[in-house]
Write a structure and sequence with these properties.
By secondary structure, the protein is mainly alpha-helical. It folds into three domains: 312 residues, no CATH class; 92 residues, no CATH class; 113 residues. It is built from 25 helices and eight strands. A hairpin with a 2-residue loop joins strand 1 and strand 2. The radius of gyration is 26 Å and the shape is globular.
Length: 559
């Protein structure tokens, strides 16, 4: 078992940690999450996440706690912001391995964890600072505890801990409760005689997991509610209502963004992002059908949970591909009992080999297109994203070709692993550092700070968290106003006109709206916009409609 754990950990580190610390947090979400975590450490405010001096109401705090804890330990934000996802990826693999080992055998556990380790979506998310990877860890822990009790039990302690992990998942992201839905296919399968060895009795103990779920949620929810009531602060009350209702129930039922059709996950996400597992469906589906005929409900239990999770997210009006990541470990477990046999089939190995060849051909085709057919596109990439040459793509194509030549179709699985490793190594150690300046806000912040009068008051409009992440002086912003740019322009105009010597960073659109007569200096291009520093001369009509209390002071060096 120790060798298996070591092998899986080494594989995960090779795929997930390549290039760790060699890039900054990148938009859209990473700079915001890193900034919130850094400010938790510097201000000591851990209960209520803040961004730019404003309450951050979109997500609960567990993911930010994780980044902040690693930042406090390492002092290196470029490393700390990626560690929660990296370790969550490794943890998810080990949980899948142990559950597969207990329910079936060591070989099944290794096969399921190995499939999960090299799945496209898993590799992508374990290398990024997104909440969903940590959510996947807690969902997998919940699945582990409850599934271990149902299929390898009775084990009421594991069942309870599974519920608690799901509760911590809820305060990571609201959908953390999903592991408890495993009880639904379990009840159906047990009634149908598919799980004859499953625990049939337990009485009130079946409520242990739901109770533990509430206990996990209470770790943050109860202190937060008490603090809100004691504070009497209307801003904190608005935070409470926003995060408990609008960001959960309303967001699910009537999302205000990421609208996709009901089949989005089934046809557009899972077929690609769950590779190579989805390429095995022609072989897996007959085996699941045979398990049904033989009344073997173990793999069907996990498959049923996958269907429930995908269906749950498909019913929501807002959809992002990453939402179904927590279901991927269960898919690997459902496939696990058959993988050892499938890897011995020539057709399966050739399929994995063909997928690897397609990735290599894609890199070669991109090199040809950018280098010879459309060099103007290469010039555009160089200007916008600092992509200096096609050399990384050529390297990927050559490395993949070498791996394919050495391994041949009979070792298609190894070819897939080698191909993914080639891609992430070139990306992590070459591409990411090369484009980092273009994707990070660091260079732009340095430019407009140099252009700002030293010692003067500086304000930001339409700001991005990637700017606050690198700012080195006190700065004023006007909160999260992306849905209300007109009122933000009025508030900024009011602030600028209240005192001479103030400087305001505005984009071209906002400049035309309320600062057309102000002295302006172009300071750079960022986020597809031209930005200007304006001084004095705000439109009086705009200033008259501004709220003098809207300005928020952010102190980046608060300790």
């Amino acid at each position: 078992m120790r060798r298996d754990v070591l092998a899986l950990t080494v594989l995960a580190l090779l795929l997930y940690a390549a290039g760790l610390g060699l890039r900054d947090p990148w938009p859209a979400d990473e700079p915001r999450f890193a900034l919130i975590a850094r400010d938790m450490v510097s201000t000591g405010q851990w209960l209520f996440p803040q961004v730019g001096g404003d309450w951050y109401q979109d997500k609960p705090p567990v993911f930010f706690w994780a980044i902040a804890a690693f930042y406090a330990l390492t002092g290196n934000l470029a490393v700390a912001f990626l560690l929660p996802s990296l370790l969550a990826g490794i943890g998810s693999l080990l949980l899948v391995y142990d559950l597969g080992r207990r329910v079936w055998s060591r070989e099944v556990g290794l096969a399921a964890a190995g499939l999960l380790a090299v799945s496209f979506q898993m590799v992508v998310q374990a290398r990024a600072a997104q909440i969903d990877m940590l959510l996947t860890l807690f969902a997998t822990a919940g699945l582990y505890g409850i599934g271990r009790h149902l299929l390898a039990g009775p084990d009421w302690r594991a069942y309870t801990l599974g519920g608690f992990a799901a509760g911590v998942g809820v305060i990571t992201k609201g959908t953390g409760f999903l592991p408890l839905l495993l009880l639904l296919p379990f009840a159906a399968l047990r009634r149908g005689g598919f799980l004859p060895r499953a625990p049939a009795r337990g009485g009130a103990r079946w409520w242990l997991a739901p109770a533990a779920l509430l206990a996990g949620i209470s770790l943050w929810l109860v202190p937060m509610l008490i603090a809100v009531e004691l504070s009497g602060d209307p801003g904190l009350r608005a935070y409470r209502d926003e995060i408990l209702f609008r960001q959960t129930v309303t967001r699910y039922a009537a999302a205000w963004g990421h609208h996709e059709p009901w089949y989005y996950f089934i046809l557009e996400v899972i077929p690609l992002f769950w590779l190579p597992g989805t390429a095995l469906l022609p072989w897996l589906v007959p085996r699941w059908r045979e398990a049904w005929r033989q009344h073997d409900g173990r793999s069907l239990l996990f498959l049923g949970w996958v269907v429930l999770v995908v269906g749950f997210f498909s019913l929501s009006t807002g959809k992002r591909g990453v939402y179904v990541l927590p279901a991927l470990p269960a898919f690997a477990l459902a496939a696990g009992p058959y993988l050892v046999q499938l890897w011995q089939r020539r057709g399966v190995q050739r399929t994995a080999f063909g997928l690897s060849a397609l990735l290599g051909l894609a890199a070669a085709a991109a090199s040809l297109y950018l280098g010879w057919i459309r060099p103007d596109r290469m010039a555009e990439l160089a200007e916008r994203h600092d992509v200096a040459s096609i050399a990384p793509l050529v390297t990927i194509a050559a490395a993949v070709a070498l791996c394919l030549a050495l391994l041949r179709p009979r070792r298609g699985l190894l070819a897939w692993i080698a191909t993914v490793a080639c891609i992430v190594f070139v990306q992590g150690f070459w591409i990411n550092p090369m484009i980092n300046d273009a994707r990070s806000g660091r260079a732009f912040v340095e430019a407009f700070e140099r252009a700002s009068p030293p010692g003067g008051e500086l304000g930001l409009t339409q700001y991005r968290e990637q700017y606050l992440l690198y700012i080195t002086r006190p700065v004023v912003n006007f909160g999260h106003r992306r849905d209300d740019p007109e009122q933000e322009a009025f508030d900024a105009a009011r602030w600028l006109s209240e005192r001479s010597g103030r400087t305001l960073l505005v984009d071209e659109e906002l400049r035309g709206r309320c600062f057309g007569q102000a002295a302006a200096e172009w300071v750079g291009h960022s986020n597809r916009r031209d930005w200007f520093l304006v001084r004095d001369g705000a439109n009086p009509a705009c200033a008259a409609q501004g709220d003098p209390g809207a300005a928020l002071l952010y102190l980046p060096d608060a300790r």
